């Protein structure tokens, strides 16, 4: 042993300890709470040991892929890309917190924007990659989209389709996916310009489009198939794909896959405390989010193997604690003293 090795401090907590805490904790996800619930030991970790863990790790989405890879079938499934706002309504000094649109609140709120790449076959929800939007690094959400698509291609994924929201429907993104040799499906805004039957360029809302699909020319890209789907409120939703032979039934099936990422975002918020980190530094926030996603991977593998829901698996942990308390309750009325 080298002389200075004897004086180097050994960490008391590791990523697996923090992940286990995120899985088990029902509500509070602070370092102080993590220290309070540690099993009895001669030298239990203090709360600052968990804070140091979040600041010493190097934030790396690649670690998530290392654990997700065995659960993914590379030549099957659908990749879904979308972003979600992690609520931070009371944040005043937390880095990475900016104003974002929230689908949950239907308003612009304070939070951290998480861009996710999810692999799904309809039954599994496997997060493969993620990016955190930060105005300081100059990267847009579309830049993050491209980074994750290129990473997925380099990892050998060959999905049936890549499905994403119209926010990511730029020509650069559509071309990138086509260059990967993949099929894409996305929604387009009603004012997106197309050219049908060489009749001139006009907005989708002014073009006659069948619900079963109509081939049109998308300027800057080429021929695509657009489905004009009537909505109950009298409007029209436009889905587009570069697979010109896609049927409406296939489009419907793939569009339903896109909802998997909504369930996923709800799951990580309900079961892993991904929104609840109170650390101020960006590095700690990034590491907390990454560890929360790795905690979700464990939930997903456990629930798929046992046929239960994520919330049920979380509740089962709490139920065991309640059962232990009921066997020996200690919160009672004080014993009255006799004169």
From TrEMBL:
Matching InterPro entries, A to Z? Answer: IS701-like_DDE_dom (IPR038721), RNaseH-like_sf (IPR012337)
Q: Name one Pfam family in it.
A: DDE_5
Query: What's the superkingdom here?
Result: Bacteria
All residue ranges annotated as the Transposase IS701-like DDE domain in the record: 63-196
Q: What is this protein called?
A: Transposase IS701-like DDE domain-containing protein
């Amino acid at each position: 042993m080298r002389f200075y090795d004897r004086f180097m401090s050994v960490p008391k907590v590791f990523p697996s300890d923090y992940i286990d805490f995120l899985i088990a904790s029902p509500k509070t996800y602070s370092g102080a709470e993590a220290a309070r619930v540690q099993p009895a030991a001669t030298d239990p970790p203090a709360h600052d040991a968990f804070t140091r863990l979040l600041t010493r790790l190097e934030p790396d989405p690649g670690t998530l892929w290392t654990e997700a890879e065995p659960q993914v079938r590379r030549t099957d499934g659908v990749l879904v890309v979308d972003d979600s706002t992690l609520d931070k309504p009371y944040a005043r000094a937390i880095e990475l917190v900016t104003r974002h649109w929230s689908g949950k609140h239907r308003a612009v709120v304070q939070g951290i924007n998480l861009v996710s790449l999810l692999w799904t076959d309809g039954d599994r929800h496997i997060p493969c990659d993620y990016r955190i939007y930060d105005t300081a690094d100059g990267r847009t959400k579309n830049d993050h989209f491209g980074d994750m698509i290129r990473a997925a291609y380099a990892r050998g994924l060959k999905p049936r389709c890549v499905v994403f929201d119209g926010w990511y429907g730029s020509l650069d993104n559509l071309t990138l996916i086509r260059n990967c040799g993949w099929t894409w499906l996305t929604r387009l805004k009603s004012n997106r310009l197309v050219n049908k039957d060489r009749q001139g360029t006009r907005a989708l809302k002014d073009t006659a489009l069948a619900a079963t699909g109509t081939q049109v020319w998308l300027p800057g890209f080429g021929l695509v198939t657009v489905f004009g789907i009537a909505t109950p409120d009298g409007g029209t939703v436009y889905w587009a794909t570069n697979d010109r032979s896609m049927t409406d039934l296939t489009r419907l099936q793939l569009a339903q896959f896109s909802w998997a990422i909504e369930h996923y975002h709800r799951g990580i918020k309900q079961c892993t405390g991904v929104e609840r980190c109170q650390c101020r530094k960006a590095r700690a926030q990034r590491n907390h989010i990454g560890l929360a996603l790795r905690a979700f991977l464990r939930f997903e593998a456990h629930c798929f193997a046992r046929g239960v829901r994520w919330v049920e698996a979380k509740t089962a942990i709490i139920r065991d604690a309640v059962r232990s308390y009921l066997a020996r309750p200690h919160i009672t009325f004080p014993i009255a003293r006799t004169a």
